[in-house]
Amino acid sequence: MARIQAIYSYTRRFGSYYNNTQEIYTKENHYKTDNVSLIVNKSGNVKTLSEGIKKLRLQLNQLTRNNVWTIAVFENPANYAHFDPIRPEYLHEFDKYGENSVMHRIVKREDLIDTYQSFYGCNIKLTESYIEVGSKIKIRTLYYPIYNKKHLDALLAIDIKNDFIV
User: Fold this and answer.
1) List of the chain residues with pLDDT < 70
2) What is the DSSP annotation of 113-161?
3) Theoretical Cys-Cys bridge with 37: which of 6, 86, 131, 161, CB 3.0 to 4.6 Å?
4) How many Å apart are CA 160 and CA 132, to the nearest integer?
């Protein structure tokens, strides 16, 4: 239980990192920095999150004995997303990503709508275990919505191999 709480703590800290990260104008394309892929579907200002995602993975891998499968940050609106690492399943889904997108379906399904209003509750959700399509790896996903001024700016999704959390 203490490790799960530590995972939650590091995940919440990423929200502050996200909010204080600079943006740079980036053209539509696929980019890769170390193991972090950035997919830009529409040219514009993009948060430079690769270094923070890399640091988050290092911390979480220490806590989970290297059982972090994927870290993804989905933006709202869906002009770009970060993946560590990019997997074919995600690339396929992100190609279809739009305003009424994967992220919004997740937010609705996991009841993460307006969690910024919860004073005592935790707005981080951990799914039940499931088999990921394509990889056939049994995982659980931790979702953390990042809200600013009552607007969902991004959704952090961390896939952890189920064997660690059982």
Assistant:
1) 1-2, 92-122, 165-166
2) TTGGG-SSS---EEPPPEEPTTT--EEEEEEEEEEETTEEEEEEEEEEE
3) 86
4) 11
